Protein 1
Amino acid sequence: MRIVISAGPTREAIDPVRFITNRSTGKMGYAIAEAARQRQWQVTLVSGPVNLPPPEGVEVIAVESAAEMAQAMKNAAATADMIIMAAAVADYRPKQYSSSKVKKSDGDLCIELERTEDILLTLGKNKKPGQLLVGFAAETDDLLQNAQSKLERKNLDFIAANIVGVPGRGFASENNAITLLGRNGSCRELALQSKSSLADELLDAIIAGSSGE
Ligand code: CTP
């Protein structure tokens, strides 16, 4: 089994000293990489900037921006049996990058943003026969409806829906809980637990769900 996992945030540069990013710490994606390695799978981890040690026995590809992550994921996807997009990819980046530091002035500053590529959407369009594609949906509201629509729109096999904005789970937390929706209509609750045991349950649930158990 060859699995490719993305993890962490992306950074979208404004100038040489500033960037736009988000609160992702990469813990969920790294935990999935570790759980996959323990199963003797061949693991590639495409990681945005995080403060985590690289898991042993895993190929780590370090990226910064959404564009770099897109390139790395597309390359790695070509030979992957399973792809899990756990990264919190920026949806927008500054339209103009300033190669010299932006200096302040008295007035307000507007930074125009443009859309980044939706990596998961691209991977879904180019999915190979037999390849399993799994996304994450981090939502503050209407969790299952939003997750279901992402599952369909991006041609995913599974989506791991998780509530964010609640203390003690999700972003930047040690623990998490997931509702795993499958393209065949399956719905499995993975209870609140450490991200490492949740990662293991998640892989079990994907394997069981995809073999029709
Ligand atoms: N994703 C991606 N490329 C992006 C943005 C997100 O591959 N440019 C992936 C994430 O890794 C995650 C899933 O898409 O697996 C999240 O779905 P998405 O609809 O993009 O969620 P949000 O970015 O939170 O979008 P919205 O603001 O519409 O909820």
Protein 2
Amino acid sequence: MKTIEWIGDSTGYLRLLDQTALPVETKFLDCNTAKDLFDAIRRLSVRGAPAIGVSAAYGVLLGLRDIKQDDRKLFDTTFFEVSDYLAESRPTAVNLFWALDRLKKLVQNESALSALQMRDRLLEEARAIDAEDREMCAAIGRFGAELIPQNAGVLTHCNTGALATAGDGTALSVIFAAHQQGKNIHVYADETRPLLQGARLTAWELMQRNIPSTLICDSMAGWVMKQRNVQVVITGSDRIASNGDAANKIGTYALSVLAKAHGIPFYVAAPSSTFDFKIASGEEIPIEQRDSKEITIGFGKQTAPDGVNTYNPAFDIAPAENITALITERGIIQPVTKENIAALLQN
Ligand code: MRU
């Protein structure tokens, strides 16, 4: 089952596995316009940093479908409008901007192509971004599995698997690879309030693959660690600053503190497309604020009084000093320092 699939030629459409319906229903959502995709990203029908980047790369083509004339100037204007529009869909995952910037550079460099040739070239590049993401996931899995001991309890947060990427995932790819290698592991999946990506999506992915797992509420993580049921914590990330501070789903900061307090290694798995070398530290990472209804009327049932004040940041930042190692497709970065990150990823 594919999370993201472009159907047809460069005038085709984007088919997404609608993650808002899981785990109860498996249904697909066809995006025919850039607005369809914008809305799908906003409401988390497609989500997870790499998946947002890959879908936006294809999504640009949706805004160029109606271009009939071979007018390159009009094509470029429309292209930049569509990519600026998609860039507004969500602010934190840098993979979105990374993918759009890659296409922008291509459009600027390939000025000799006609409009229709350029559109085909964009599809080729979107497919390359998709394929590279799959390869990066596999490499992250291979490197990361080395860090998972035999007979380990592994705690994870949010959803970082096949649903969050074009491949097998980031943190979950490590878990899948360790399991495939025959390591006896038991996964504790945080339910991940308020949108329950852990309960709805991670628990589902783990069960599909027959990996022993237990779903817990986020607030139980510290106690499960205290009971010595967790030997490793591993999460993904939406944006990693030059110094290694890593933004991820709200609750990740608390997990990094808890892991440190219990002497448990805390790993962050992410492809190089998640690193933002334009920013020095996590302080510069924009944190998405979401609708208060996600807290007060989650999934249709009112659970708080009318008019209650809420605070609903979708992400927080695990500081580099709490991260034992970063797992990337190029290898493992340990200790997590600006210099070590640059040495592995910036040459
Ligand atoms: O709001 P979401 O569901 O898009 O948040 C996703 C996460 O926080 C993931 O952990 C992150 O994108 C890394 S996924 C490979």
